[in-house]
Amino acid sequence: MGYLELKGLRKSFGGQPALDGLDLDLSEGELVSLLGPSGCGKTTALRIVAGFETADTGHVVVAGKDITAVPANRRDMGMVFQAYSLFPNMTAAQNIEFGLRLRKASGPERAKRVDELLELVGLGEFGARYPHQMSGGQQQRVALARALAIQPRVLLLDEPLSALDAKVRVSLRDEIRRIQTELGMTTLFVTHDQEEALAVSDRVGVMSQGKLEQLDSPAVVYREPASAFVAQFVGVTNAVLGKAASGAVRLGTFTLPTDAAAELADGSDVKVIVRPEDIGIVEHKGESNGSLLGSVLTQSFLGPVTRLVVRLDGDEQLVRVDQPSNLAAAYPPGTAVALDFNASRFLVVPA
Amino acid sequence: MAVTAKPGRKIGGTVLRWVVLVVLGFYFVLPLVAMGEFSTRGINNTRSLDSWTGIFSDPDLVDAILTSVELAVLSSVLMLVLLVPTMAWIRLRLPKLGRLVEFLCLLPLTIPAIVLVVGMAPLYAWVNYFLGDSPLTLTFVYAVLVLPFAYRAIDAGLASIDLKTLAEAARSLGASWGTVLWRIVVPNIRTALIGASLLSVALVLGEFTIASLLNFETLQVQVNLIGKRNAGLSIAVSLACLVFAFVLLFLLSYVGQRRRVTVVED
C-alpha cells in the first residue's frame, strides 16, 4: 500500500474525458513524475490530488485516509505552480510564512522557520524582497520554500520549471531533487519535459489520453518502453516500417527474426521501434548479403555522439543511428553501410 | 535615405497641441473662474468671502453636506461588499456568468434617472416603512447607481492579477475562501478598489435627480434650494463640490499609477 494512492480516477470536462481510470501509488519519500503531452490528463490528476478539481469517480488516499471529499485548504498539500504564484503584495519571507500564520504559529517560530527555508533554497539574503524584485528562478525557489513551510504531507509540482530558461531549469531541477531527497518528501511532479522527468524521478509515469501507459524507473521506461507511444515520447527513437513474416519482420530484403512478430498476422504492416544508439553500423562493400543496407545521408555532431541519418536501400526510409563521435568520422555522407539490429533492443508493434 | 521628421512639421504639431490645450483649458476653466468670481462678489464692487464662510453657518446646508458625505461612504462600502466577492467568485468558479453580471452592472447606466425613480418610488415606500425615512436609505439606490463605474474599475483590477493561481496557492497553504478574499484578493487590487470608491464618492456627491424626486435633502438638493434665495452661497458650495471632485479624480490618477515592474535576470 502506498503513501499517496490515486484509485480509479476519472474526470471529464464537457464530455471530453481527461482522466480515464488512473491508478497510481506513491511510497513515502518517493518522487514520481507524470509525463505526457499536453492534454494527457497529468495536470488534471495533480489538481485532483490538490483538491482544486473533483474527480467524477475514484478516490485519493493519503496515509490510508481517504481525502477525496476534503477541501483543498485542509489537505496539507504543498503545491508549486508554473509561475506567478507568489503573492505580489508580500515579501519573500511573508510569502513563506503565510501558511504558518494560518496555522497560528508563534512569531519567533515563524521567523526561525522562514530563515531555515530561505537558507534551504539558497536565498538567505532575499527575505525582504518582493516578488517583482526577483528573477523567475528565485521566485520559484521562494514558491518551493512556501510550499515546504507548512510541512506538507505531499509536495505537488505543476511544471514548476517550464517558465524558466534552459540553464536555470537544469540547476533548479537538481536542487528540487536534492531538497526532496534531503527532506524525504513524497512528491508528485507533473511535466511535459521527458529529460526533466528522467533526471529527477524515482519512477516515471508516462500518460496518454487520460491513462497511464507505463510506470517504472527512468532507466526501464527508457530502455524497455511498454508501448510505441512511450518509446516515441521518451527519448529519440526510430519507427521503421516493415511486414510481419512468420516469426520475423521483413524490412525490404532484410529479415529480422523476433519472437514479438509471432503474434502478428503474416504480411501485416508493423513498426520496428528502435533507439538510435541501439543500432550497430558497419561499412558495407560488395554484394548484398541479406543484411539491412543503406547509405549515410547526413551527420550531425551532438557532442559525445554523432547522429547519422541513414537512407535504407529500396524503400528509402530514414533511420537515425548514433555513434560515438570519435568513430563517426569513418562514415562520411555517401558511405554505403549495413545496419545491425540483432544485438540491440527493439520493439515490434502493429503499424 | 533615412526618413527624418521635418523640423517644420514638428513645430506645427507642438503649436497645434498648445492651441488645443489653451482653447479647451479656457472652455473648462472659464466657468470655474466665473463661479469663483461671482461667489466672492461683495457690495459696491468689493471682494468678500461671505458666501464661502456662509457655507458653515447654514445649518440645513451643513446637515446636507454631512448626509451626502455619509451617503458617499456608505454607498462605496456597500458597493465594495457586494461587488468584490461576487466578481472574484465569478472569475474563480463561474466564469460563464461573467457576461450576465457585467450586463447587469452596466444596466443602471442605460436607464434614465427619472425612470429609475418611477420604479423606485413604490419600493421606497416599503424601505421607509421598514427602515424609517432617513436620507441614508438612499444608500441602496446609490450602490446600484455606481455599479457600472465600480464594475469597470474592479474588473480591470482583477484582470491585472493571476487570480486563479494566487487563490489556489493560498488555498493549498490552508486559507479559507474568506482569507483568500481578505488577505490575497483585496490587497492585490487595492488600487482598483480605491479607484472604484473614489468614482462612487464623486458620483454620489453630485447626484441630484433621484434624491430630489424621492424628497431627500442631500447636498445637491440643498444647493438647488439655496440657489433660489442666495445665489452666491449656492455657487460657492457648487464650486467647493467641483474642486473636491477634481481633487478626488486627481488622487485617483495618482494612486492608479501602476507599480513599477522590475525585471530581474537569473
From TrEMBL, chain A:
Gene Ontology molecular function terms on file: ABC-type quaternary ammonium compound transporting activity; ATP binding; ATP hydrolysis activity
Cross-referenced InterPro entries: AAA+_ATPase, ABC_SmlMolc_Importer, ABC_transporter-like_ATP-bd, ABC_transporter-like_CS, Mo/tungstate-bd_C_term_dom, P-loop_NTPase, Transp-assoc_OB_typ2
Protein name as annotated: ABC-type quaternary amine transporter
Lineage, uppermost ranks: Bacteria, Bacillati, Actinomycetota, Actinomycetes, Pseudonocardiales
The enzyme's E.C. designation: 7.6.2.9
One term under GO cellular component: ATP-binding cassette (ABC) transporter complex
Residue ranges occupied by any ABC transporter domain in the UniProt entry: 4-234
The species this protein was found in: Umezawaea tangerina
Keywords: ATP-binding, Nucleotide-binding, Transport
Any one Pfam family match given in the protein's UniProt record, by short name: TOBE_2
UniProtKB/TrEMBL annotation, chain B:
InterPro entries listed in its UniProt record: MetI-like, MetI-like_sf
Transmembrane segments: 15-34, 71-92, 104-124, 136-154, 192-211, 231-252
Keyword Iron-sulfur part of the UniProt annotation: no
Keyword Transmembrane found: yes
Residue ranges of domain ABC transmembrane type-1 in the record: 65-252
Pfam families associated with the record: BPD_transp_1
Subcellular locations according to the entry: Cell inner membrane; Cell membrane
PANTHER family reported for this sequence: INNER MEMBRANE ABC TRANSPORTER PERMEASE PROTEIN YDCV
Stated family: Belongs to the binding-protein-dependent transport system permease family.
Protein name in UniProt: Putative spermidine/putrescine transport system permease protein
Organism: Umezawaea tangerina
